[in-house]
Amino acid sequence: MFIEYGRQVIEEEAEGLRILSENMPSSFLDAINAIYECDGRLIVTGIGKSGHIGRKISSTMSSTGQKSFFIHPSEAHHGDLGMIDSNDVLLLISCSGEARELFPVIEYAKRIGVKTISITKNIKSNLAQNTDIVLYLPDIPEGCSSIGCLPTVSSTMTLALGDAIAVSLLSMRGFTNEQFKALHPGGAIGYRLTTVHEVMHKNDEIPLVNNGSLMKNTIIIMSEKGLGCVGVIDQHSSKMMGIITDGDLRRHMSDHILSKNVEDVMTKNPVCIRNNMLLSEVLHIMENRKITCVFVLNEDEIPIGCVHIHDILQRKWA
Fold first, then answer.
1. 293 with 229: CB under 8 angstroms?
2. Is the overall model pTM greater than 0.90, yes or no?
3. Domains in the chain: ranges and CATH
4. DSSP alpha helices (H): ranges in the chain?
5. Nearest CA to 113 among 91, 90, 86?
6. What integer is the mean pLDDT of 167-187?
7. Quick one: pLDDT at residue 231?
8. Do the Cβ atoms of 216 and 264 come closer than 8 Å?
9. How far apart are CA 165 and CA 174, in angstroms?
């Protein structure tokens, strides 16, 4: 029985989102243009559940390049109004549009000439009548048959509308993966957007030998670099010819291995990557090919870096 209650609420919220999508507020474009053209910050406010949704909207805005913060309306009454500047845009959220805590904030915003946007489903509310741009939510029942007024459908629609604004602004600004990565250096997002260039071993750290080198010297270089491999390059063009790994050493182990040339031991045409590849993509390649080290080549097939699987895993779990 309770599973059915839960499923019903989710279905009612999904229906609310469908209705919102089909009835996007006509003022939506006005709202994103006002924020886009703003020289200051987007300040979000709301009380109760609307406040919690407002915090999330503001956080999403900040993470996508829009300067934004949340101001609690009750704290605003006691001095935090000073955080609002005339160059800012103020987004006020109230399902009923009659949250008294918002009235002093609206009054102050009008006094200093701040552009105001509201999200509400009450067309005739004080909030709707006293803000410059109104984003109306469809006036449909909440997903709670026993109480009927618990914010469920309305809060979900508000959250989705905030996401729609944030993503629209992101597109208008041409926000790039690199900019997003700069704002999300840690965690799973930071890992997913990290490229090979950021973790690869470079310059003197790259274990390389020329073709024709003896294995006795090559093993010393492998040991010094500590990556469990060495790349073999053409001594004239510097292009990649092959790779020697710990596994190659074991397969060719004999009394005469130290006197052999690297060409006798190396694996030809090894798996190589580019420095703009994402770490997640490289990890997938390495796991599928069951290799622990890859060389990074430039457009001329010359090694410019080397990545060990530990370099990727350390960044993934950082």
1. yes
2. no
3. 2-175 (3.40.50.10490), 196-316 (3.10.580.10)
4. 2-22, 28-36, 49-63, 73-76, 103-112, 126-129, 153-173, 177-183, 187-192, 215-225, 246-251, 279-289, 309-316
5. 86
6. 67
7. 95
8. no
9. 14
